[in-house]
């Protein structure tokens, strides 16, 4: 491919709106362009990267035995009402109506659609296990779309869904997906880590996230210096949710007769799980409600309150909080209050207090609640976040370290949640109806492009891992418009390299060599060959790997070996 035939609108200046290196370089290199908040166009160069990621993902999915399908982006509301998520999913679900005023949404994920497909098409244990995947556009109306491809509203995901007769069968596929993810991210040249993850409200089943390690990552991941224990922060900080809920219920019942349940849906006391696992929502009948949360997760807490149909929250002032606890407790207030205002508008705000992490349970007092005494401190309800240097809970020998990660993949045992809600059962060997067990497995295909850049760049631009690069080799033809020899030699080399199986970008533009080199560095091709009158006279090629600082002169045989 000639540079004059592919549109690469590079930018000299760093766009002001881009904070992250990946966002800056993908814009500057002409890989993507912004349409609106969280919406991006893939330019020719960017699309080549995307296709290469898709290819690796597809090959590894196919290798694992998963079958590719393609489901609609637009999904009927009825399915989401059946699963209960039409109400629960919240504002990330973009809802729309068709011309007949029927409700639809843009798919943020496809559990409902695939479960519907399975209940129509799969009737016998003989058809199981089966695993379907797609590579497709998702839409999530993220509250804070940012960092370009990293957190888009429209983005591309590989999502797979497996169906099984029993848990043992799910375990086998789960492991094979886990292995396929290891191979995929290894082939993509990423430095990544699989970590245990919380599976939120579903409980009891396994889940892992795959994180690309990068300081700019939005997630904190915890790992042991001694054993192979690694988990995301939510998981590392929370004991088994079920145990936590039971213990908390016991404690709460001692303190406050009248509390009925700690079930996530209960109106009188709830533990908000999943992302909001660090949030305890304690609601006593006929008393002002109390919300206690750790960190700066106030928005999630408010959302949780909303989901639990709490209509009264009270905002505690820092003074009130201090007076109630009698100690400086690190009250920080809801940091993200501005975004939460639309949600708050639906509530009569009565109380909200927020403790910074690092405080001990023992230091925390339950304020704004006329309880006779503080809740006792059952270990299972210890809501401390893990901090670096804590002893490893698994081997007790190592200490825990905390790093930043970018979530690029997630494997998840769904169990029978969707089968139950949507009536997915098949005939088992004895001819009886049996509920189907499910797993789901996502990869952020478009996010991978950004994550790769976060790990592979220098002050001159991107350094693509071999598997992702839009072209394997860049040929810079110096003053090709003036030298027919250079033009011909560069074109011939281009053709030979392509014939040998490499994709090649030939820069034949009428530009100064400095500009040509800067473009090659910015767009990050791993190998560069310079063709000039000078090197032609020496009968060699001038070669430089993207990470190298010096040129080397190579014969063509040597070049092909690079
Ligand atoms: P996050 O915690 O970053 O919001 P998630 O846990 O909500 O992600 P999943 O539902 O697990 O995401 O979706 C599977 C994968 O899709 C994620 O692991 C991630 O790589 C990718 N993904 C999720 N949301 C986005 C987004 N807004 N933009 C780009 N990729 C995304
Ligand atoms: Mg999300
Ligand atoms: Mg996540
Ligand atoms: Mg996830």
Q: Descriptors for this entry?
A:
562 residues; 25% strand; binds adenosine-5'-triphosphate
In helices, the fraction of residues equals 25-40%
Q: What's the N-to-C terminus distance? A: 20 Å
Number of helices: 17
- Beta-strand level of the residues, as a percent range? 15-25%
Low-confidence stretches: 251-318, 324-384
What general outline do the C-alpha atoms trace? elongated
Small molecules in complex:
adenosine-5'-triphosphate, magnesium ion
Q: How does this model look, in words?
A:
With 562 residues, this protein is α+β, with helices and mostly antiparallel strands. 31% of the residues lie in helices and 25% in strands. It has 17 helices and 29 strands. The strands form eight sheets. Strands 3, 7, 8, 9, 10, 11, 12, 19 and 22 form a nine-stranded mixed sheet that branches. A five-stranded mixed sheet has the order 26-25-27-28-29, sandwiched between helices. Strands 13-14-15-18 form a four-stranded mixed sheet, covered by helices on one side. The radius of gyration is 28 Å and the shape is elongated. The structure holds adenosine-5'-triphosphate (ATP) and magnesium ion (MG) (3 copies). Adenosine-5'-triphosphate binds at residues 109, 140, 142, 151-152, 155, 157, 407-410, 442, 444, 446-447.
